[in-house]
């Protein structure tokens, strides 16, 4: 799945997306690991969302995808990414597919953010960089 076009963030948004949110603004999340069940946790940054959504062979991300776009818009302050996440989730047939689509979008946004922070031209709007984001 190729993520849709996502305009690169401006430097102020890029800097904000690299920060952790306040404890009260964290997004409750977890990992579902059979036979244990849901292991609680939270997401406090775009980078931690990326790590949380990373595919793992023995667990599934326990993220409320319906609430995620609102959190990205209201807490992280990225309305463009929020719309792209909402559209990706709406187009998904199941939770796993939604997680994969959102993971690709977050990877793209982090690659763009890292490019802006490094003063480089951001990657094309439709593709993430070949390496994983470092933040």
Major beta-sheet overview: 3 strands, antiparallel
Number of helices: 5
Residue share in helices?
Answer: 40-55%
Q: What proportion of the residues form beta strands (DSSP E)?
A: 5-15%
Structural class: alpha+beta
Give the strand tally: 3
Evaluate the radius of gyration. Answer: 14 Å
Query: Overall 3D geometry?
Result: globular
- What is the H/E order? HEEHEHHH
Runs in which pLDDT lies below 50 for 5 or more consecutive residues are 127-135
Q: What's the number of structural domains?
A: 1
List the helices and strands and how they pair.
Layout: H1 11-17, E1 27-33, E2 37-43, H2 46-53, E3 60-62, H3 65-76, H4 79-90, H5 95-117
Antiparallel strand pairs: 1-2, 1-3
Features:
single chain; globular; 135 residues; alpha+beta; 5 helices; disordered C terminus; three-stranded antiparallel beta sheet
Note down, in words, how this protein is organized.
The chain has 5 helices and 3 strands; from the N terminus they run αββαβααα. By secondary structure, it is of the alpha+beta class. It has one domain. The chain has a 3-stranded antiparallel sheet. Helix 4 packs antiparallel against helix 5. The two termini are 23 Å apart. The C terminus is likely disordered.
């Amino acid at each position: 799945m190729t993520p849709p076009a996502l305009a690169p963030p401006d430097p102020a948004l890029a800097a904000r997306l690299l920060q952790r949110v306040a404890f009260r603004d964290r997004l409750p999340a977890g990992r579902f690991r059979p036979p244990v069940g849901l292991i609680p946790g939270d997401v406090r940054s775009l980078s931690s969302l990326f790590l949380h959504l990373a595919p793992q062979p023995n667990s599934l991300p326990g993220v409320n995808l319906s609430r995620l776009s609102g959190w990205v818009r209201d807490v992280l302050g990225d309305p463009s990414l929020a719309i792209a996440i909402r559209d990706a989730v709406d187009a998904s047939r199941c939770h796993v597919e939604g997680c994969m689509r959102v993971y690709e979008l977050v990877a793209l946004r982090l690659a763009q953010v890292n490019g802006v922070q490094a003063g480089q031209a951001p990657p094309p709007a439709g593709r993430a960089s070949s390496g994983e984001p470092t933040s």
